[in-house]
Amino acid sequence: MPSFEEIATGVCQLARGCHSHGWVPATSGNFSAVVSREPRRLAITPSGADKGALEPKQILEIDGDGRVVRGTDRPSAETAIHLAIVRARAAGAVAHTHSLNAVLLSDAFAAEGAVTLEGFEMLKALDGVTSHEHTERVPILENTQDWEKAAPDVERMLRANPKAHAFLIRGHGMYTWGRDAREALRHVEALEYLLEAVGRS
Ligand SMILES: [Zn+2]
């Protein structure tokens, strides 16, 4: 198993990668990676951190209930979503961005309940997708300021959409995940490209 420092470094690389594209401006977004599954421990970005200047020593460790077990800062208000994704998807890393593509499309397609991505070669960057002839349905959830309360809804939605690689929160941003921080970054890059393709067309 990699050390906490190695996992924290991976979380920082994921966060900086997203920041370099402008997908997590103004301290928005949050990122995590699994440290251990039994007991459940996550390395996660602290609330309010500049993702472009993030360092491994700032990364917090939390338990399966979202309590901080390493570090002194506060974890993100959206920690409960990270834990729901790890439980429902056995993900090794979770990425959350506030990109304009995600925000605008989540509003434009809210009535449909999802953004549909299909026909693009870039779909093959998503885990398990082997052809452009793939339909990726990205569900859209309504925004809230109480994710502790809404986390069971997130988990239910994930279990009801077992093939989804991501979801959007209306007017807010995108969540995606991967087996590790590198795969989570690949998924963010692919999904941002696909959302932009849909948005521009
Ligand atoms: Zn957010």
Distance between the termini: 44 Å
Largest sheet: 9 strands, mixed
How much of the polypeptide forms β-strand, as a percent range? 15-25%
Structure classification: alpha+beta
Helix percentage range: 25-40%
**Could you say which overall geometry the principal axes of the C-alpha atoms support?**
globular
- As laid out across the biggest beta sheet, the strand order is 4-3-2-1-5-9-8-7-6
Main CATH class: Alpha Beta
By DSSP (H or I, 4+ residues per run), the number of helices equals: 5
Tally of discrete structural domains: 1
Regions with little confidence, pLDDT below 50 for 5+ residues: none
Give the SSE order as H and E letters.
Answer: HEEEEHEHEEHEEH
Identify the CATH architecture: 3-Layer(aba) Sandwich
CATH superfamily label: Class II aldolase/adducin N-terminal domain
Average of per-residue pLDDT values:
96
Cα-based radius of gyration, to the nearest Å: 16 Å
Count every beta strand, where a strand is a DSSP E run of 2 or more residues: 9
| Oligomeric organization of the protein chains | single chain
CATH topology: L-fuculose-1-phosphate Aldolase
Ligands, deduplicated: zinc ion
Topology:
Elements: H1 4-20, E1 30-36, E2 41-44, E3 60-63, E4 68-70, H2 79-89, E5 93-97, H3 100-108, E6 114-118, E7 135-141, H4 147-160, E8 166-169, E9 173-178, H5 181-200
Parallel strand pairs: 7-8
Antiparallel strand pairs: 1-2, 1-5, 2-3, 3-4, 5-9, 6-7, 8-9
Helix pairs in contact: 1-5, 2-4, 3-5
The structure holds zinc ion.
